[in-house]
Each structure stands twice: as C-alpha cells, then as structure tokens.
Specification:
The radius of gyration is 18 Å and the shape is globular. It has 284 residues and is an alpha+beta fold. The chain starts with a helix and ends with a strand. The longest helix has 13 residues, at 2-14. Helices cover 20% and strands 35% of the residues.
C-alpha cells in the first residue's frame, strides 16, 4: 500500500498537479513511520515525527473521524477560557481540537461565532484584514468548510446553524485558495498550527503540527500546512488558531488526553495547554 502511494505521489509531482513544496516533502509525508491507533469505531489517531520535512523536523498529529460511524462534529463554547481538554471533558467529547482566534485578555472570540439562532461574536475588521477567509458551518449534524467575508457574515446572521469563522481557508474542492487578502507575515512565518479538513471520501481530520522546539518540532507556514493536508487526502481545509493554542485531545489517551505537544509552557511535553474560549469536538 505504501509503495502504491509513493508511486502516485511521484506521478502527481511529475505532471505538476501537486503544487506543494518539493517532491521530497511529499515523499517524506507518505513514507513516514506513522504510529496508528484505532481507539474506537470511526476514530483513527495517527502521529509521526518526520526528520526532514519543510527544512526541519516536524511533529504531526491527526485524528480521523468517520461520520458514517454515527459520529458528529460540534462547536463547544465556554463561558470563560478553559483548557481544550477540560471543555472537551465537560461536553463528553470523544476527540477535540482548539477553535478559532480570540482576545487573550477578554476571553471572547474575535471571529464570527453563532450557535443556532444566537450570534455570540462577530469578526473584527482586523481579523478580516489579517487572515479570516473561511468558516466551519454545521447544520443538522453535517459539517462544511465554506468561504467567508463581511458580506457572507451579514447574510448568515439570521440563519439557523452553528458557525465559527477562522482562516485562512486553505483548500476548497481540492484547489489551493487565494491568500492575497491575508497578511503576508502570517502566511509565511512558521508556527505551531491547527487545522480541520474534509477528505475526498468524506472523512473529517483534526490536524496539529507542533512548533517552537527546533530540536523536535519546527512548525510550518500556511503553504506548507496546505501541502501537508493535500498529501493526507484533504479536499477542503481551514486553518484554526495556532501558536500556544494548538492542542489535540483524545478521550482515554494518556497525559490527560493530550496527544500533541502544546508549546505554551515552553517545554516539549503534553502539559502546555493554553486556555481557550471554544473548541471543535467529536461526539456521538
């Protein structure tokens, strides 16, 4: 199976379909020694430390969710900032990832957030200028990743759905999105990153790439994260809040369920969670 994937990647690179980083980066992802766990039906957890990827070592964690197994994705909002693991536990989650951008002093989202009829927060002008070009939309238990701007936000205020804006939107229908409206340094600087994606076969991916630890995790920029997700089979993909917020959680896992290496405590361990106001989570 791995040999077949290598052949496919080489073929795509040779005809220019994969407009990612380099052929060696593509091969590094496909041929990595992924640790794979199946903790329950519909959930697959994968982790790899990849020595040479995007000019450094990368620590990549992902949780693959199969909606066909009766699993759903929701957005959980806390009345005050809490660790991703704590919010997830309070909502009886199976898996979770940190949500979108927020004001670290006030604790509120700075991106559009609506639960059902209730608009909780709206996107600030600064966030639109910096990076917000997409959103997670959940309606009747089904999740979509959609483009987002000020006009779309106004139209969605009255609709009954759960929406969380973020960005940038990286992939839509398999195509790399336009980031020309985003701040260049945010796009090009390597950071710990979190993302949500939908694959070509309808699976949902929660993805984290650790960073700020040169010996263990270099972090990635937006083009590199987009390339990684394409190689992993992503069709649609949205960047979430990153940096010290980057956290991936799995119920029943060791270390309080944290399966990546959050950097907010400046140590390469599973302890350094940052408190956040909202998360994406998986539930029955």
């Amino acid at each position: 199976m791995k040999r077949n994937l290598l052949i496919i990647v080489l073929a795509l690179c040779s005809v220019g379909i994969l407009k990612g980083q380099t052929a060696s980066d593509s091969l590094a992802i496909v041929s990595a020694s992924w640790k794979i766990e199946n903790p329950q039906k519909g959930i697959v957890h994968k982790y790899a430390s990849i020595p040479q990827l995007y000019q450094g070592i990368q620590s990549v964690s992902l949780i693959e969710i199969d909606p066909g197994a009766g699993l759903k994705v929701g957005i959980a909002v806390s009345d005050k900032m809490k660790e991703t693991s704590r919010i997830a536990s309070e909502h009886n989650a199976i898996a979770a990832i940190n949500g979108s951008y927020f004001d670290m002093k006030r604790g509120n989202s700075v991106c559009f957030l609506k639960v059902g009829h209730q608009v909780v927060d709206t996107t600030t002008l600064g966030e639109f200028k910096l990076r917000v070009t997409g959103a997670i939309s959940i309606r009747k238990g089904k999740m979509k990743l959609i483009p987002w701007n000020r006009q779309i936000e106004k139209k969605n205020r009255g609709k009954v759905s759960t929406i969380l804006a973020s960005g940038p939107l990286m992939l839509k229908d398999g195509q790399i999105c336009d980031w020309s409206s985003c701040e260049v340094n945010f796009i090009r600087t390597k950071h710990p990153r979190s993302a949500v994606a939908i694959t070509k076969d309808g699976k949902i991916l929660f993805i984290t790439v650790d960073g700020r630890f040169p010996e263990y995790a270099g972090g990635v920029n937006i083009p590199e994260l987009t390339h990684l997700i394409r190689i992993l089979g992503g069709k649609d993909a949205l960047n979430l809040d990153g940096g010290g917020s980057t956290t991936l959680w799995l119920s029943g896992a060791a270390d309080n369920g944290i399966v990546n290496y959050p950097c907010d405590n400046k140590r390469f361990d599973h302890v350094g969670e940052r408190k956040v106001p909202n998360i994406l989570y998986v539930h029955q």
